[in-house]
Amino acid sequence: MAADDTLLSYKQLLQELGQLCTRKQTGTALIATQENMLVRVILDRGRIISLTVGSKSGQDAIPLVRAVKAGRLRFSEGGATVTREAEALPPTDKLLQLLGGNVGAPAPAGAAVGAAVLTQIEDALIEHLGPMGSLIWREQLNAAADARTPAGLARAIEAAAKQIGDPGKIQRFKEQALKLLKSG
Length: 184
Known about the structure:
Structural class: alpha+beta
Largest sheet: 6 strands, antiparallel
Radius of gyration: 17 Å
Strand order of the largest sheet: 1-6-2-3-4-5
Strand content: 15-25%
């Protein structure tokens, strides 16, 4: 674990968080970001049961966490209280992937599509829908039981594309996303 006063990149913060999960830690990780935000992650035996940034919690906090550039992480061991938002969070491995990659928690068995591709597809959807693209993409990934397989991801792309509305933008998004899927 990095020292409390060490400024870590976003990738390093996720790696540290992933390591806490891998080691099945219980407690609270606080991340003071370079952008003056405070991210609070509560872990229970390696499972992320709460994610809060300011007034946003659960899945609503994910886009705010993804906007972090760098920060300082402090972990305090101790009891974890299960909150209502725990039910709204995806499983820890999927949550870590939504936050930016495979950083400590193993990918689901049979996973064929990497987290980087998922993030690139999400970014493409945001290009066409604006910030709501992140929410819609997350909903499609959560709805598809096999979203990490190429076939499941193709269905998620198709469902997300329907939310765009403009036929030209739909076509461009689908072309971008399927190209990314093939390259990943």
